[in-house]
Write a structure and sequence with these properties.
278 residues; 17% strand; Rossmann fold; 2 domains; 10 helices; globular; alpha/beta; single chain
Length: 278
């Protein structure tokens, strides 16, 4: 089994982004006219993982020359204040992409807040209008995680139309873009629930797992030679683990994205790709 180097793929995407945008000169924060592309991130509360993810996005934005704004709020902030801030960002011409770092504290209505973002500035692809567009196979950009999956397949020279894809997740919303994208492009695509894994996953040439359970995916659940793309990220103490058990899969899978260092860096690069396109 070979490990897929997500950092290497992310670096390639970042280089592609650099060729498509022109950093502001002078920078906006020094009185310049503004960037060709700009990302605004709203972060609520003190979740250390969320703060880490935002720092990674900020660092990547700086590397490629995308203008970056970070709006931090205490958990005591009202929902109305967050919506007001999003509306302000919607109106800013130099901001081409907006994300709200998830998960939000429990008191907030996540859907209501996400719906406030203009669909054209919804860099994560969570807005209902964008989800509907995916269901109709009409979309201008890809959700970052789906983009990351496709970039991995591109790196491995996988011919999608000859492969069977199986997606393992507990979410009802997460599969929507995958079903829409792969149903007319792949040989087969199956959405596997947690209770149907034994039968469902064994048929997949490509297994995508996003169930959020440490080392849940074992060798007996996949076919010989399958490519495993692990989207799971479960924090235990100071370590982060994926859904896939790398030791169990070592002699069965052909490729595996490690956690960390697999899908994560590519997803951040794909997010910036959306911001640069907007």
């Amino acid at each position: 089994m070979k490990l897929i180097d997500g950092k290497k793929i992310a670096e390639r995407i970042e280089e592609e982004i650099k060729t498509k945008i022109t950093p502001p000169n002078p920078p906006l924060h020094k009185g310049g006219k503004g960037a060709v592309a700009g990302l605004a991130v709203i972060l609520i509360g003190d979740n250390p993982e969320s703060h880490l993810y935002v720092r990674l996005k900020e660092a990547a934005a700086k590397r490629v020359g995308i203008y970056f704004e970070k709006h931090l709020f205490e958990e005591t902030v009202s929902e109305q204040e967050i919506i007001k801030k999003i509306n302000e960002l919607n109106a800013k011409k130099n901001i081409t992409g907006i994300i709200v770092q998830l998960p939000l504290p429990e008191k907030f209505d996540t859907n209501k807040i996400i719906h406030t973002i203009l669909p054209t500035k919804d860099a994560d692809g969570y807005h209902p209008e964008n989800l509907i567009a995916f269901q109709k196979n009409k979309f201008d950009f890809l959700p970052p995680v789906l983009c990351a999956v496709l970039e991995i397949l591109k790196e491995l020279n996988v011919d999608i139309k000859t492969k069977s894809f199986n997606l393992l997740t507990k979410s009802e919303i997460f599969p929507i873009p995958y079903i829409a994208y792969f149903k007319n492009r792949a040989k087969e695509f199956h959405f596997c629930s947690e209770n149907a894994t034994d039968v469902c996953l064994l048929s997949g040439d490509i297994v995508i797992t996003a169930i959020g359970k440490k080392h849940y995916l074992k060798s007996e659940m996949i076919k010989k030679g399958a490519i495993v793309i692990d989207i799971g990220a479960i924090k235990k103490g100071k370590n982060v683990y994926g859904d896939a058990d790398p030791i169990s899969l070592a002699k069965k899978a052909s490729y595996l994205t490690p956690t960390p260092g697999g899908v994560g860096p590519i997803t951040v690069a794909c997010l910036l790709k959306n911001v640069a396109k907007a």
